Amino acid sequence: MEIKRIPVLADNYVFVLSDLKQKKAAVIDPAVASPILDYLAKINCQLVAIFNTHHHYDHVGGNKELIQHFPDLCVYGGVEDKGRIPHQQVFLKQDDTVQFADRVGQVFFVPGHTRAHIAYYFPPIEAEETGELFCGDTIFAGGCGRLFEGTPSQMVDSISKLRQLPDNTRVWCAHEYTLSNLKFAVTVDRENVALQERYKAGQQARSQHIPTVPSLLGIEKQTNPFLRWDTPELQATANITQPARVFGRIRGMKDNF
Ligand code: ZN
Ligand code: FE
Known about the structure:
By secondary structure, this protein is α/β, with parallel strands linked by helices. It is built from nine helices and 14 strands. Helix 5 (178-188) packs antiparallel against helix 6 and helix 8 packs across helix 9 (243-255).
């Protein structure tokens, strides 16, 4: 399975999964259609699936036009998003699976950013492969999505599910927000040397317009404050220890940063 990252709109990433032998492709969160259609034409693949993580327009905006070009494709999304994702046909819940090419994706129900958000995790087949996590606006590189429809407690539960995946899992988040996330992160986790180094590397990469996505889950565990509510450092910053409260305070600080 190949994964192509396509930058669209101001800071979104759309991911196209392809199986070049079978000439089939799937897309994660098509914000828009035309760059996806161009890429599919270039690799000469038929689009068989749209995997949506949640209903926001910058994740589903291309659904309609893609279906017009590929009427047989199937549109997947979370069961709680019923009525909100255009042309949704499959309604997924925690522990459901989806198939693409030779890979089976596991569905995680991860409410918080929205009340219906899901993530797709494709475990490795061979030992040397990486797992691929498509987490929409749940975990970002160095940050997390805003809590539009969920609570800190829900987001802690959701991120806990994703945080237990292997360290070498690639995190394909839906936005290039890394630099502003890291700029905030260094202010709430001040002694974290790995974070400071990541911030420097991120500044370097972005000054040359190099994408910072995907990141690795192991790096997120070390440096992303929104995966670190149970560390003494973040508990000290929040001046509290209860997980949802630590998370809620850090999220509130980010909202006002
Ligand atoms: Zn969103
Ligand atoms: Fe988004």
